Amino acid sequence: MTNTDTDQQVVIPGDEITSFLQKGRNKIILGPGLRRVANKVYACNGGILRYRSPNTYWVDSHRKRYIPERNEMVIGIVVNKQGDYFKVDIGGSEPAILSYLAFEGATKKNRVKLEIGDLVYAKLLTATRDMEPELVCINAQGKSHVMGPLANDGYLFHCSIDLVRKMLNPKCPFDKIGDHFPYEIVIGMNGRIWLKTYTVKSTIALSKAILASEFLSFSEIQTMCDDLIKQYANS
Question: Which intervals hold domain Exosome complex exonuclease Rrp40 N-terminal (predicted)?
Fold first, then answer.
């Protein structure tokens, strides 16, 4: 296996996939859908076994229910405030926690202002079965990068996890549409997309195009993007 577009190894829960792993000097990283038991690796979800160079493996499966995974970027909705923490809905079985100090430059006196219902783009610091997920809005260097609160004038909509992975694929043609169709977009691995354009009409058109691309090939998505660009140029 050499790339995420040509892998066609179908797995079901319980399949041992140890023999498919490329053993070398690099430590193998197991993503969603895979679990290590003793010295063997098993699939715990059904789907297609994927590989990204140099050493990352995961199972690409079509699902709408989100299962939190460590280091994934998600869009959350603040649902409560408790002491020094926010409770954030990320679409999992239970809310995640987000500390007041988990923001760039935050101190006890300089706290970020988040209200119930606000959106936040964050990274999962921990995600285990025995503990509630924990979010942060800073990287290892203490910088926010692209994380933090999202503006309330954007449009939030939901999609499948499969579509999220397709949108994040470097070969997805939607990146090129930004040269002709100005917009801002934030994609969460929990099946949430935040979108902002300059008009309500363009927001609706682009969000519908994104949702329609779920079962399209990249060439078909490119054709749809070309049509959108023409419509925008003529409007």
Answer: 28-65
Tell me if residue 106 falls in helix, strand or coil.
Answer: coil
Prediction pTM value:
0.78
Query: CB-based contacts of 157: which residues, under 8 Å, 6+ apart?
Result: 192, 193, 195, 207, 211
Q: In this model, does residue 2 exceed pLDDT 50? A: no
CB 86, CB 73: distance < 8 Å: no
Q: What is the pLDDT of residues 15-52, one digit of tens each?
A: 988 888 876 656 888 887 888 888 889 998 888 888 87
Dump pLDDT digits (tens) for 162-180: 899 889 888 888 877 877 8
Give the Cα separation of 99 and 137 in Å (integer): 9
Distance, in Å, from the CA atom of 108 to the CA atom of 101, rounded to the nearest integer, reads 7
> Which strands form 184-188's sheet, in the order they lie side by side?
155-158, 192-196, 184-188
Give the three-class secondary structure for 80: strand
